[in-house]
Amino acid sequence: MNRDPSPDYRGIVDKLLSEDPFSNWMGIEVIEANKGFCKVRCRIREEMVNGFGLTHGGILFSLADTALAFSAATLGRVAPAIDNSISFANQSVAGDILTATSSSLNITHKTGLFEIRIENQKDLLIAMMKGTVYRTSQSLSQ
User: Fold this and answer.
1) Distance CA 70, CA 13 (A)
2) Are the beta carbons of 114 and 68 closer than 8 angstroms?
3) What's the Rg (C-alpha) of the chain?
4) CB neighbours of 131 closer than 8 A, spacing ≥ 6?
């Protein structure tokens, strides 16, 4: 009896990252990928802070959005975000290493609901995002 091998979740995410110039500019690296789950991180550089010397909110949103996109992709279909909301809990500055962890909460045939947490190198919560994706019928190919 032949069984299909388990999907290569890390391969899916690595391929997406290799084709994502913005996430590469941010210096995002993949730590872990599994079905409906992805953990990524990046170091905050001087050009990523705002006029107050804090990590720009757009950088935090982008890090969370990348984790969301990658975790949704592990489910095997193209799944663009249709709704995201983010709440900022604590400040971050240049030099911080931020980790975004995206976990699926509910997956249906058409949508997926995810929670994304961003924490710094001291495990301090920096931001939380709720993200909803639309699961198209288009398969992802490795």
Assistant:
1) 6
2) yes
3) 15
4) 64, 65, 68, 81, 83, 84, 102, 113, 114, 115, 116
- pLDDT, tens digit, 9 for 90 and up, residues 27-63: 999 999 999 999 999 999 999 999 999 999 999 999 9
Domains of the chain: 9-134 (3.10.129.10)
Tokens of 77: 């279909």
Q: What does the block give as tokens for 66? A: 């990348």
pTM of the predicted structure, to 2 decimals: 0.94
Of 138, 128, 89, 132, the closest CA to residue 108 belongs to 132
Q: Is 18 helix (H, G, I), strand (E, B) or coil?
A: helix
DSSP secondary structure string, 54-105? Answer: SB-HHHHHHHHHHHHHHHHHTTTB---EEEEEEEE-S---TT-EEEEEEEEE
